[in-house]
């Protein structure tokens, strides 16, 4: 098996280790080694992890037994593709039966030292029970990725997302703390907080910001409204997760233009920590899949088998360092496209050039065309005259689904008339989407802004369906 830095099971890290300041990689061997040699080590780790879960987690033992599999059957990464995926709904149901952490908890509940979870806004919240060993491993993993982004001990990192059960905030916090930076957990979501965020950012000379792309754009608006130049705040880097955007060209460019910063994308899903195992390492769109932290397969959603490099699929995640609630082939239902490892990028991990750009659940169909909201975002947000927000309304006229895009229009940001602007945006949408969309210009500040994740899609077809049922 290939030699890799700090590659043990269970994971053990030197708490005093930090790379020399001039070193680009936290772990140079692990991050730049031959991918095939790394895969050999990953296969052995998967076998160790599966044996560990088989012994300790009734959830996995039952699921694999029903599929006719045992850990010893996994003799290759190709064989690993036959391990059945797990879905978030399965985890929720298991936790409802085996409260509070589910029968996939692999440690004594008394060893749980940190509790995180989902919001539960669409059903029973999922609880994440983390022991201290995993907390340390997650901090080390996030520190590695943040180091790759160029974040250093002299930085002041402002956390601009809710300090609640949301994993993203705490992962960024623990990672920044581990690499030795000063961490300012300011949070987000309280009325009037955006202006105070900017004031504290300036007062404390923050150099790095973490949050969602939507909130960064909101901060830029609030800054201008209060005669603050966001380009003079002193930020040098901003990194994001929680929603598509940092790898969507138009959104990314708006952030760069507003703050004069480098932009880094990251993020997978709440159940997967370290979630920054999908993380950028250069000031460009896209993220690496840090395979020695979380083994990521981009799979066909129907077969859950890996798709070839260059193809689109859904990520399937296996955490390689989690001992409390390991995720083994967790199906994300997100969408991405991956490329083969390329040493010229500075690291030999597979690469997602557009990051994670949508969810299968969010994709909708208009007259036979599959449409991702992020594709609409990219078109309208790149238009001169864009007023800062928009809404995507899917409606039904007669028996035909229709796509309506309401876009804030700011005449001061363009030299063309509103009518010409609407026609141009509509034509660009048709080119990108393959179907027509009715574009309606509305006044700036029409739509509510967000301090967290944007919710721009409104599906009015459900209203029509309910009215039809009532009529019957």
From TrEMBL:
Stretches assigned to the AMP-dependent synthetase/ligase domain: 107-313
Domain spans labelled AMP-dependent ligase C-terminal: 368-461
Source domain of life: Bacteria
Residues spanning the signal sequence: none
Record-given protein name: AMP-binding protein
